[in-house]
Amino acid sequence: MNFPPRPTRADIDLSALEHNLRQIKSCCSETPGVLAVIKANAYGHGAVAVGRVLENAGVESFGVATLEEAIELRAAGISTPMLVFGGCYPGQESAFVRHDLAAAVCSLPDLQRLERFGRDHQLRFPVHIKCDTGMGRVGFLPAEIPPLIDLLTRGSGVEAVGLMSHLASADEAAPEVTRRQIQSFREMCRQFAAASLQPAAVHLSNSAGLVAWQVPECTLVRPGIILYGSYPAPEFRTKIDLRPVMTFSTRIAQLRWMESGCGISYGHIFHTERPTLLATLPVGYADGYNRLLSNCGEVLIGGQRAPVVGRVCMDWIMVDVTDLENVAVGDRVVLLGSDGGQTVSAEEWAEKIGSISYEVFCSVSQRVPRHFSALPVT
């Protein structure tokens, strides 16, 4: 591109990413390995750049959602072991082998298919067995473990390199749910051990689980959202020191004085109640600035908060800057992140739109260019 882009951008602080990884490791008293979750374009942060940093930092494995996500990382030269959480769909088997990937397996028919493929091609297809210990989503239920173990011990076309489950409520004040899940997972581990099946990768703890619970049977933890500097729930702020990795920003495109009584944006859901200095910003819901932030979002300009007024458009938002001093066209505006001691966090956005920080990050669209900070030389 031989012309400057519009000023809306997402800056990714790779030093903050490394800091968060160090904090994660310090939380785990048993010092298990790290399976870093970089699915969904690393929660919107840029999977290739994030993957390279974490690979250089020595994470043991990566988790992605789909074969396509894994191939993108392999094409970028990332060679760390990789697990595809979404599994291997029929017809994808050869691609998994070619790109040296492991698949999560959630059902006996899928395991049987992969076992046949492995036998037919004289190889052992690597799988992580996904157990449903109480999530109620996918995976082998406790009653399904005996026939699963029978296939694994008799078949020659698959290798159970991993045993995994997923916690449903580790980020909520429901400890009994998590205790039951951990106990169920331990029982499944015992059944595997009794059958002389000892997967090298045993993992259960997501971001909330690894901070709040110790499961010494596990050899890996699976951090996701905390890698990117967001807390699974407010009470986790006192348990781990995280730094936000993404700053989402733009610049003022236009300033206009509007008379009292003017309707602003679609539907005129906001009317000026005084002469108002209005700043128009080149960002909208097509970029990931959620439409539910209409009339309730706030941005930072020179370290000062300013309210979003009117309905968020596809490509524009309007901000009331009447009470700010020395505002000019071209001034930087922080939509998500920190400026001058003030912070607009992903958690703040999530509360206002009735969602979670995971969705906030993932919603920052691909038309917003990511700019990656260089890591300091050590």
How would you explain this protein's 3D organization?
With 378 residues, the protein is α/β, with parallel strands linked by helices. The chain folds into two domains: 13-229, Alpha-Beta Barrel (TIM Barrel); 246-344, Lyase, Ornithine Decarboxylase, Chain A, domain 1. 29% of the residues lie in helices and 23% in strands. The chain contains eleven helices and 20 strands. The protein has helices spanning 14-27, 39-44, 47-56, 67-75, 93-98, 108-120, 145-154, 175-194, 207-212, 346-353, 357-363, and strands at 9-12, 33-37, 61-64, 82-84, 102-105, 125-130, 158-164, 201-203, 220-221, 246-251, 254-258, 263-264, 270-271, 276-281, 298-301, 304-309, 317-320, 332-339, 342-344, 370-372. Strands 1, 10, 11, 14, 15, 16, 17, 18, 19 and 20 form a ten-stranded mixed β-sheet that branches. The protein is elongated. The mean pLDDT is 95.
CATH topology (level 3) name of the largest domain: TIM Barrel
The CATH architecture name of the largest domain reads Alpha-Beta Barrel
Largest sheet: 10 strands, mixed
CATH class of the largest domain: Alpha Beta
Can you describe this structure in just a few lines?
The protein has 378 residues and is of the alpha/beta class. The chain is 29% helix and 23% strand.
List keywords for this structure.
single chain; 378 residues; alpha/beta; TIM Barrel; Lyase, Ornithine Decarboxylase, Chain A, domain 1; 2 domains; ten-stranded mixed β-sheet; eight-stranded parallel β-sheet; 11 helices; 29% helix; 23% strand; elongated
